[in-house]
Amino acid sequence: MTGSYIGIDLGTANTLVCTKRDGIIIREPSYVTYDMRTNRVLSVGSKAKTMFGKTPPSVTSMRPLRDGVIADFELTSEMLKVFIRNAMGNSIFISRPNLIICIPYGVTDVEKKAVEEAALEAGAKSVWLIEEPIAAAIGAGLPINAACGCMVVDIGGGTTEVAVISLGGIAKSVSLRTAGDKCTEAIVSYIRKKFNVMIGDSTAEDIKIAIGSAHSSSDIGVAEVRGRNVLTGLPAAMNVYSSDIREALEEPLNAIVDVIKTTLEATPPELCADIYDNGIMLTGGGAMLCGIDTLISEKTHLQVYISKSPLDCVANGIIKVMESKDKGVLIPCAKHN
Over the stretch 234-260, which tens digit does the pLDDT of each residue have? Predict the structure, then answer.
């Protein structure tokens, strides 16, 4: 493993770890459960997510990243340590890995530094960064090095990245901190207002996946939802329809459509002509929301495509970069001494 590279899609909702040889080897929710009495991390990933909202006061289960950036440095570092150790096994005791980590476009130098330091603290020998829209476009198979404009919209958990790419670089990009999490929060708020029932984020996320709809042509059906009645304080259950979820998601989805339009308005005319011919590529978990391609196409009058593996696009892009001899899209950081 000497000189090995490990790619990490450090997402707000999920973290994917990949290598050049084995592809994606870890796919875990970005959750950490922490015991405040003993200052000890109890679990990371899927196990920690199952504890979310169910822990006693002395134990907290949380996501250490919010809106695409690190919210808790120590817990992010601990989470990375676990993922790196699981990826390398006993080899980590022989040599430290070089990490390639994906970051949202337009993050501040302070936020970049936080990612770098968390990775070095987790045991990395060196850290390289790659911007999320570039990685997503590569993973989706877009010809980013051609003299031709292509647009990618990566809808993750914390951020929506909209980018126009040409000749291997970003011609125009906007990062919006409205994405999957804001959609989940909107569902929680809507159900409380309409049904007087409080549900948790995990339940809202399950509803979004099961019957979520962005367009009237893609209504899926109905689901039974259980929560706590805010008037009586007692457990309650009711039926929620796709039309309800579509109404709940109207505000965050409109914000995503608006930022796509804003990006197009600021794009040079020649690149806009290319996008008219090539359409828009959707990646990220948000691309899996039923009807979102139809909604964006209807609002922009452009062809909209969903990548074959929306959740894996960024990680697949990192793998292709590791396989390529051209590493020009990587941003070097300081090495660990």
Answer: 999 999 999 999 999 999 999 999 999
Q: Determine if residue 3 is left, alpha or beta; phi over 0 gives left, psi from -120 to 50 gives alpha, anything else beta.
A: left
- Closest among 144, 244, 151, 261 to 191, alpha carbons compared: 244
d(CA 134, CA 269): 21
315 and 25 Cβ atoms separated by less than 8 Å? no
Residue 244 near residue 223, CB atoms below 8 Å: no
Per-residue DSSP letter, 300: H
Q: Please give the distance of CA 127 from its chain centroid, rounded to a whole number.
A: 20
Closest CA to 213 of 145, 136, 288, 284: 288
- Residues 6 or more apart in contact with residue 209 via CB below 8 angstroms: 288
- Ordered by where they begin, the domains of the chain are 5-134+315-332 (3.30.420.40), 142-306 (3.30.420.40)
Question: What's the CA angle centered on 322, arms 20 and 104, to 5 degrees?
Answer: 115
Mean pLDDT of the chain: 90
Q: List Cα–Cα distances, 64 to 118, 189, 210, in angstroms.
A: 11, 23, 26
Residues 38-59: tens digit of each pLDDT: 989 999 999 999 888 888 889 9
SS3 241: strand
Which has more pLDDT, 87 or 182? 182
For residue 213, the 8-state DSSP code is B
Distance CA 21, CA 19 (A): 5
Residues 6+ apart with CB under 8 A from 303: 278, 279, 280, 297
Query: Measured between alpha carbons, how far is residue 47 from residues 33, 100, 102 in Å?
Result: 9, 25, 24
Cα–Cα–Cα angle for 15, 327, 106, rounded to 5 degrees = 55
